[in-house]
Every structure is written in structure tokens, then in C-alpha cells.
């Protein structure tokens, strides 16, 4: 496809919540390039596909291990943005279909489970049918009779002409959010000018042990960051394999204590501050890499 | 079974690595009570089953989420010990069977994969057959012809009479360790006197946010611990559900900086120090609970 538009890799299939998150960030100004796994999204990045969207953390299920295990490795990829998406299941039907006509509801097993109260209340007679993903249910709906419905992201109603949303926010759990990283193919990649960025400035540090004796948490680095008036928002840990068993890579998401204004001038100052801090953190027992500034 | 021996709950089936870890800690002085899940092990604890063994972390795959999600909840259970076990796959056969007779090797998919080099080198003609667990392969071996073998923990050769170990340590990866927690039904439960404890004294703190604004990492608590000369060995994070999305429960495994001697007098002093530190940590924005001392 040569539309002249920038390409953005997403964890597919199109119509999933990752695609919805990507759309929320990049909108319709880009072309979405669907990939089969988080590793494939990262692997697909290049100067012609400069950005990708991958899930980082869910508010109920926690951090996405596959994402952290990729960030654990040294590579050119660099976190350049975040998107927080409310997981909002919709009941989608073929245009014109009314609630009383529905006899069959298709969706991914997890989504069917998360909408159990709604289904018991509004569609007690309907049969539930499991599909491979929520987006696959919407796709299948296109070739199904009018007594069928799908539970999926609202983006499916835009993606597949002929479908419409009958109910939104039908899940039991009201506070299910997923946070995504916008990842760039290199730290030099600039975000397109049309984006509206409204979150606080942050950075992600990866701290790996160098010496065989460093099994402890890098508290010296935490103390140094606090001393520099840096706020630590998240600390995460993954095994540092091929080293002493149980040695760990630590990830620290940091932010400035007084930088709410995101002008390009302020963002540049923040980037410099992060690089300067990281260079001071080069010690003999740990290595600190900046793997994202956004 | 009323043998008069103390019962210890383990993640079953018997013959798995969790059982081997339990055996390494408690030996043959106790009766092992097999449970289907980590939650079931914790739920089975009582004054008659005072201890259980659950996996906490693997050196390659990281922390065991199910274990942390149980430790996240307020309950009577209390961590009272640790066991580090080298995951050491053995090739087990019926007594007297020689390598050249083997035509079929049974095991869990992961173990078969981890022993791929050994199988290609020593048994290139043998067929691999997947089983539900490594212990299930050993159990199946009992009723199989003499041309079969199983890949499993060495404890299976002790557990099932008629089987013997032909090769040990046949895995590709030489540094695969799992760390287990010995968990007690209450903080008052005393470890049996026959145990030999040779690890450093530690404790586990669980830090939960109280106020709606505390989305940050509890760096004030880290700073306080460092000020008290406490070493922080591990920091882990899980979602604190039913609160602000992305608020977290933090777990900190701590140890004293100068207490290598584990005499009961020193252990008592350490326990008191931990309780005293935790009581000083009661702030308005976080709650600190001691959920293990060992």
C-alpha cells in the first residue's frame, strides 16, 4: 500500500484494543500495519514504519511480561509516548438489528466473561460463542445472520462498514484500563507534528548489573534520583538471564517533579536532564540505559 | 492418613519440582499433602497442615504472578522460609533398562524442549510424547513397556519403586533455578526443630497505598529502610485493584546488613527489628505489613 502516509505497527488483528489505542494516539493520518506479536511489532520498526504500539500494563492484570522482556534487550527501539485506554466492551450488530432479535453473541472468552452481568440481564436466552479475538467476532458478524451480535471494541463499528454499536460499556468491571507504549525505531525518531500530547513528561531507565555480586535492588540509584528531585513512578524487575541466577534487570519510570508544561523547549530540557542523570549513574556495578523519553 | 507426622501442603502432583523443593526443606519427617494450585496450598493451611511450599520466582521466567497475587491479600499466611532448587531434569527408566533400548521419551512439553540437545545427541531415534506434568510422565512409565523413558525430577525415582535414574542434569540450560517460599498458616507457627537453616535472615514487606493520590513508587519507605541500614534485595509490584487504576502494591524483600549468624537469639533480634521498622512506617499515604520473616 503506497498512500504516502506514515505506517504504524500494531499488535493485530485490526479492531483489537491495541489498534484502538493506536488510533487514539495517531488517528486517521497514518496507516496501521498489523503484526502477530509484541516482538513482531518491535521487529517491524524501520525508517518506513517508524512507530509501533504495544501494551505495557493492565490495571487489573499487571505488567505485560513480553513487553518488558523485549525492553530488557539492548536494541535501537525507544519509548516515545504512552496511551491509556479504558477497555470498553461494546455490543455490536449489523445495522438496524434490535436487541430483541439477538439469539447469538460472539466474542473472545475473556470479553464474554467480563460482560456476564449484561448478558444475563439483557440477553438471557442468547447463546454465547467463543472467537479467537474480539476483532474476529466483529469480522465474523459480517457474514452472519441478523440474529447475531459481537462483543468488541467500538473501533470495529468504524472498521467494518455495515456494523453499528447497540450498547457501550457493557462490562461488569468498570475500571479496566490498559496502558500502551508508543515505541519508535530509534531515539532520533520524531513524533508527527499533528499529535496532541497531554501527559506529563517521563522517561524509562533500564538498570542492569555488571558485577557478579550485584544481586541487590539498585537502591544507590534510587537514592541518587531522589536527591536530584526526580519522581519514581514505577519500579519493575525481570530476570537478567545469562548471569548469576536471580540477578535482575530493573526498570524505573521517572518524571520531573515540576515540569507540567510540555512545550518543545521544556521537553528538550527534560531530555537533556535525563541524559545527564543517566551519564552520572554509570557506576562499576550497574549499567543505566535510557530506553525512553516522552 | 494418621501417621502422627506434621503435614506440609505442596503444589501437586507429588513428584514435581515443588515437591522436590519441599522434600529438600522438610525431608522425610513430614507427610506431603498435594494440592492443585498455589491458592489451594495457601487455603489448605491450618493448625494440622501448618506449612506449605509454593514457587516464588524462577531464574529465567521471573516471579510467579499467582504467588504475588495471593501475598497481595490480607490473610493469616506468613512466609517462614525459602528453598532454592536447581531444576535438574533426569532421564528415568524402569530398573535395568539401558539407553539403547529406549524408543519413546515422555515428559511435559517444556522439559522435552529444555532437553532437546541431550535427546538429539543420545536418543535421536526416540519419539517424544507430551504429558501433563513431568511427574505424570514418571507415573505413566510404571505401566509402560521397557522401551520407554521419562524426563522428570530425580525425586520420582524415590517416589515410584521400580524406576531408576539413567542420566541426571540433561537440560540444555545449566542455570535454571526456582526459589520457593515455605509459607506458614500463621505468623506464630514455629518451624520444626529438625530443619537446618543456612540462608541469611530476611523479611518481606507489603506496601499498599491508602490515599487515592499515591500512584508513585514508595521511595520514602525505601529511603527510610536505607537510613536504618537495611538491605533491599528485591522490589516487586502488582496492581492494587479496586482502587485508582494503575495504583500498585509493592513488595520489598529486605535483609539485615550485618546478621549472618542465625542463632535463635539473633533471629529473635531480627524479628523485633523488622516489627519495629514496620511500625515506624505507618504513614498516612501507605500501609506497611510484615508478611514474612525467615
TrEMBL record, chains A, B:
Q: What is this protein called?
A: prephenate dehydratase
Key words, A-Z: Amino-acid biosynthesis, Aromatic amino acid biosynthesis, Lyase, Phenylalanine biosynthesis
Q: Is Lipid metabolism included in the keywords of this UniProt record? A: no
Native source organism of the sequence: Hypholoma sublateritium (strain FD-334 SS-4)
Taxonomic lineage of the native organism: Eukaryota, Fungi, Dikarya, Basidiomycota, Agaricomycotina
Q: Name one GO cellular component term.
A: cytoplasm
Name any Gene Ontology BP term: L-phenylalanine biosynthetic process
InterPro entries xref list = Chor_mutase/pphenate_deHydtase, Preph_deHydtase
Query: Can the keyword Lyase be found in this entry's annotation?
Result: yes
Gene Ontology molecular function terms on file = prephenate dehydratase activity
User: EC number(s) per UniProt?
Assistant: 4.2.1.51
Q: In which pathway does it act?
A: Amino-acid biosynthesis; L-phenylalanine biosynthesis; phenylpyruvate from prephenate: step 1/1
Q: Which PROSITE patterns match?
A: PREPHENATE_DEHYDR_3
Which positions fall inside the Prephenate dehydratase domain?
A: 7-185
SUPFAM superfamilies associated with the record: Periplasmic binding protein-like II (SSF53850)
